[in-house]
Amino acid sequence: MSIEFKIFQNERRDFVIKRVGGTYNQHAHLCTYQMAKQLERMIKARKMPKSPYLRGSCKRLLTQEEYDRLGQRKDRYYNHSKANYQSSYR
Of 7, 8, 46, 77, whose Cβ has the fewest other Cβ atoms within 10 Å? Predict the structure, then answer.
């Protein structure tokens, strides 16, 4: 995605990530600079964040069409037949 973001520190010592050329509503408040950079990288890589807070921030930064194009998370595979299996061949 060719979306640009600007990250700056707020007076309250949290970080704000804002979409360049976006509306006033297209911004999100995050606790750390690393979290803001991680969110930016995930959006540019078209990946959906796992954290509910980051998913909400991602939804605020993007339009509905852009948000829908992000890759959805896969369900974790759980092999129930081997869940309680302990091998005696160690």
Answer: 77
Tens digits of residue pLDDT in 19-53:
998 888 999 999 999 999 999 999 999 898 888 99
Count the neighbouring beta carbons within 10 Å of the beta carbon of residue 43.
Answer: 24
Global pTM value: 0.74
Average pLDDT, the chain: 85
Q: What are phi and psi of 36, to 5 degrees?
A: -65, -40
* Amino acid type, 63: T
Q: Which two tokens stand for residue 71?
A: 């890759």
Q: To which H or E segment does residue 39 belong?
A: helix 33-44
Task: Provide the residue type at 15 as one letter.
Answer: F
Alpha-carbon distance of 45 to 65, in angstroms, equals: 16
SS3 state at 68: helix
